[in-house]
Amino acid sequence: MRNIQRIDFNAMGTEFFCVAIEPEPGLFDNVYALAVDLEAQWSRFKPTSELMELNNSPGVPRLVSPATIRLVKEMKNAYEISGGLFDPNVLGAVLDAGFASSKGDPSDVTVWSARSESECTVEDVEIDENNSTVTLPYGVGLDAGGIGKGLAADLIAIRAIELGAMGIAVFAGGDVAVRGISDTGEGWEVGVQDPKDPTKFVDTVRLSMGGLATSGSDGWLSKSGQSHIIDPSTMKSAQSSVLQATVVAHAAVHAEALTKVSFLLPVEDAILRIEEAGAQALLFDREFNRYETTDWKKYT
């Protein structure tokens, strides 16, 4: 009988839980500490986070951790792969849409004191890995948001395997990262929530390694009813016909970024774009019509 253990905790404004196969003593303490550390580095609600220090120090190379270097690289990569549909340079638009305060604690407020206007994009962000620095141009404000949670899930899964676990599944809100053997030995099973009834699943995805992300256009609304998903072409809340998107990719961070593509293109175009990126998806529009990529069924 395998030793299967679970830990639940809150971080990054969402609920995490991790299921580990044959975890070594102290593994869950290490996993929790990593999640807390990543939140401290990336939260836009903490003025001393590395991300907000970058946002508030335009034009200045800032020394950052390897994890933050990785985050910014993933942001730039997702921007390129998505053709700019995933854009982390939306901090100003997020604040304007009514999301300045944290969901968990409304007293935690984003302070972007260096906000300015420019034509710069995330492509203009400079990474110097030799000196462990990142330089943001004036006018660029990065928001880790969902991609931060996806990357956190990936990094926690990697850490757990490095610390001796035979397998791990990390659930971070709608993002999931898996590695190693599962409790059944036949791949980790992850349910896809029914957009009509959150207590039910419409599919069960089986993953041996990689990531899954589910996002909804109405998942977080401002007091005025605006969506948290920003359309970079207008810098306003997206007006999408897609209600829910689930993407399977080789990492949770990539799956998370590609869910955003689903809300910014016509459904058929979104399906094609996700397939071109080497991922698979299941989408539902507001009439609950179902759309799948060609190979979605291979995972169910």
TrEMBL record:
Q: Which SUPFAM superfamilies match?
A: ApbE-like
Instruction: State its Enzyme Commission number(s).
Output: 2.7.1.180
Claim: Glycoprotein is one of the keywords in the record: no
Supply the Gene3D superfamilies for this chain.
ApbE-like domains
Keyword list (alphabetical) reads: FAD, Flavoprotein, Magnesium, Metal-binding, Transferase
InterPro entries reported for this sequence:
ApbE, ApbE-like_sf
Task: Identify this protein by name.
Answer: FAD:protein FMN transferase
- What is the species listed in this Swiss-Prot or TrEMBL entry? freshwater metagenome
